[in-house]
Design a protein that fits this description.
With about 500 residues, this protein is α/β, with parallel strands linked by helices. It has two domains: about 150 residues, Threonyl-trna Synthetase, Chain A, domain 2 (Threonyl-tRNA Synthetase, Chain A, domain 2); about 325 residues, 3-Layer(aba) Sandwich (Rossmann fold). The chain contains 14 helices and 18 strands. The strands form six sheets. It has a five-stranded parallel beta sheet with strand order 9-14-8-15-18. β16 and β17 form a beta hairpin. The relative contact order is 0.13. The model has no long low-confidence stretch (mean pLDDT about 90).
């Protein structure tokens, strides 16, 4: 059921975006629209036209959208030659789409048509405008937020909740892309074709290192900080980030002392069971928070503590004489999905804590109307890593993704705005490196698989990127966590 609802959400979102684009261009034919990033249950974007966007403009666009929906118009999917598609987008002055199409070897392009307006979107849409049951469009931060349902069974719209810290990190990433001179995949490919790849990689990695150093400086500027908590969703690069942060802390004269939350799992027979009768390792109740808090308090008091080791084969904690003591100039580093959950460190005074949220929050677009979702980047990362480190195929990874997503929504995203700082682990060139390995795995998925259409969509998406050899990736890069060859650990 969850998988079905996820597919409905994708179709609904693409259709809603197309209706929005059509409505806006009907009202403001010479305007330029950029669909940029997610904010809560909505998508933030900007409209560039002769007069700055205002609240009345947004209301007029919303009314026009509703008119298109009420007319129950068909949304037609057509195939045209690449040359024909380029002609269409040249006539629209949409040169971002032209640049992208000129660089691929497709002979045909699938376009969508709505009331005489053509556009390209990767992934499926619904068949009629009336399939959009509920939406909202609001003026926000000199742009707009296009809001979609939070429940695709009842088609209800949740109350809008601002995410100022998340919006801020997207703005920071936008500045990074400006520094790199890359705003979309067409521009990225052009840089690679012009021989600027090495420079692109070095600057991208330097931006990461500078940000990590700034975070370390913030931690060290506060005398009371003794516990650094790092949380983020699957495939965010938490482990590499924690190691690189530890190096920057040492540069400041602070000794990082890592503690693994895995070692505080409750014994298997005490692990909670989910609604399907399976062990739920994603819930906070799977961690012995009482013991964890006891050990943290003892360490903060300068005591020596014996830390358990969790034996995953036996499914139980073992005591093997692993002793730990926090140096006077030491800081405890904890990374894991529950690190920002207040229950995890409920017995620790807030003054000792510094909270970090990390995720692959891509700001790069295929073109102005096709954003690359954070979820897609993490999916591709995980497909490559799962095959490399766990021997799992792409089919297994895609089949389990809805469970991963459910756990993240319940245990991670609800706490992200509580972080003291956020770190965006995405790298502008990473999909060029991941492409080869991800497609190799996606090609193995048969047509009768329930995730075949998803695999097909991801292959189409990855097809727009130039392929880059992994040997050029630095050994301390977060990307190495997914492709292997990291200096921090081995698979």
């Amino acid at each position: 059921m969850e998988k079905l609802l996820e597919e409905i959400e994708k179709k609904y979102t693409k259709t809603l975006q197309f209706i929005f684009i059509k409505a806006n261009l009907d009202l403001f034919p010479k305007s330029k629209i950029t669909i940029e990033h997610s904010v809560g249950r909505g998508i933030f974007g900007e409209i560039f036209k002769d007069e700055p966007l205002n609240e009345k403009d947004v209301k007029d666009i919303k009314d026009k959208m509703q008119e298109l929906i009420d007319r129950d118009l068909p949304i037609n999917k057509i195939k045209v030659t690449k040359e024909k598609a380029i002609d269409i987008f040249n006539s629209y002055n949409m040169y971002d789409k032209v640049l992208l199409l000129e660089q691929v070897d497709f002979k045909e392009v699938k376009l969508y048509e709505l009331d005489g307006r053509y556009d390209y979107f990767y992934g499926p849409m619904t068949e009629r405008t009336s399939d959009i049951k509920v939406f909202d469009l609001m003026y926000y931060d000199n742009g707009f937020i296009l809001r979609r349902p939070n429940d695709y069974e009842k088609f209800t719209l949740a109350e809008f909740v601002e995410q100022r810290k998340m919006s801020s990190i997207f703005r920071e990433t936008e500045k990074w892309l400006d520094i790199l001179g890359v705003g979309n995949v067409g521009a990225l490919n052009k840089k690679i074709d012009q021989g600027e790849l090495v420079n692109l990689i070095m600057i991208s990695e330097a931006l990461h290192e500078k940000k990590i150093a700034e975070i370390a400086d913030k931690i060290c500027s506060k005398e009371d900080i003794k516990l650094v908590l790092i949380a983020g969703p699957s495939s965010s690069g938490k482990t590499t980030f924690a190691n690189r942060l530890g190096i920057q802390l040492r540069v400041n004269g602070v000794i990082p002392v890592p503690i693994s939350l895995d070692d505080y799992f409750v014994n298997r027979e005490q692990t909670p069971i989910d609604e399907n009768g399976e062990y739920d390792f994603e819930t906070i109740e799977s961690v012995d928070t009482e013991l964890f808090n006891k050990h943290l308090n003892l360490l903060l008091q300068g005591e020596e503590v014996e830390i358990p080791e969790f034996n995953f084969i036996k499914g139980e904690r073992e005591w093997v004489g692993k002793k730990m003591k926090l140096p006077k100039n030491g800081v405890i580093i904890v990374e894991g999905i529950h690190a920002l959950n207040p229950i995890l460190t409920s017995h620790i005074d807030e003054k000792y804590k510094f909270k970090i949220y990390i995720s692959a929050l891509t700001q790069l677009n295929l073109d102005n109307h096709n954003r690359i979702t954070t979820t897609d980047v993490r999916r591709v990362r995980r497909i490559v890593r799962d095959q490399l480190s766990r021997g799992h195929g792409a089919e297994d990874t895609l089949k389990m993704w809805h469970k991963i997503k459910r756990g993240e929504q319940k245990n991670i995203f609800v706490y992200q705005e509580e972080a003291d700082v956020m770190f965006n682990s995405t790298l502008v060139y990473e999909l060029c490196v991941l492409k080869k390995y991800a497609i190799q795995e996606l090609e193995k998925i048969k047509e009768d698989s329930i995730v075949y259409e998803e695999a097909k969509r991801l292959k189409e998406f990855l097809g727009f990127f130039r392929e880059v050899d992994k040997d050029i990736v630095p050994p301390n890069s977060i990307l190495r966590e997914f492709i292997g060859g990291s200096i921090f650990y081995k698979y």
